[in-house]
Amino acid sequence: MSQDRKPTNRRSVSTAEAPAAIGPYSQAVAVGDLVFLSGQIPLEPQSMTLVPGDVEDQARQVFRNLEAVAEAAGGGFDNIVKLTVYLKNLDDFQTVNGVMEEFFSPPFPARAALGVADLPRGADVEVEGIMHLSEPEAETGGPDEQAARGSRNSGAE
User: Residue 23, class by beta-carbon neighbours within 10 Å (0-12 exposed, 13-18 middle, 19+ buried)?
Assistant: First the structure.
């Protein structure tokens, strides 16, 4: 796509309740009913400093920051369908799982967790996400209509 042809349904999302972007990116970008949440590290939004404490404290701040951006985009944790967790130490995997359970409830979002050599500002954890804002039932018409649509679209008449 050339520089002069930008999607018209794309908008940037930002909030003072989460750390300001520390580079040339948006806190989130909404395209249609999808919102792509940039990675959050454990910065305190007002001071832009790393929270003191261990990986558990850092993970809580990361999820608070992610929640603030999700809410600014018009959703919340129930709308998040995919997370990617970056950890400097994969031994922290279970600790971050425990913190994640404080913020999310079933059905949990899909997730990938990756071990990385380093993260910005010396953080131990970073999390990014994808959020879907529409209600699936309202969008598809429910399971009965989905089944009918499936048989119509299968080519069988």
Answer: exposed
Domain count for the chain: 1
Helix (H), strand (E) at residue 110: strand 110-115
3-state helix vs strand vs coil in the chain, percent to 5 = 35, 25, 40
| pTM score, whole prediction | 0.82
* Domain-located, residue 2: no
Return all residues near 113 (Cβ < 8 A) that are at least 6 apart: 84, 85, 86, 87, 90, 93, 96
Length of the chain: 157
Q: Report the CATH number that the domain containing residue 76 is assigned in CATH.
A: 3.30.1330.40
Could you tell me which of 84, 40, 80 has the C-alpha nearest to residue 58?
A: 40
Count CA atoms closer than 13 A to 56's CA, side-chain side: 6
Mind listing the pLDDT tens digit for each residue in 57-92?
Answer: 999 999 999 999 999 999 999 999 999 999 999 999
> Could you give the CA distance from residue 150 to residue 131 in angstroms, rounded to a whole number?
25
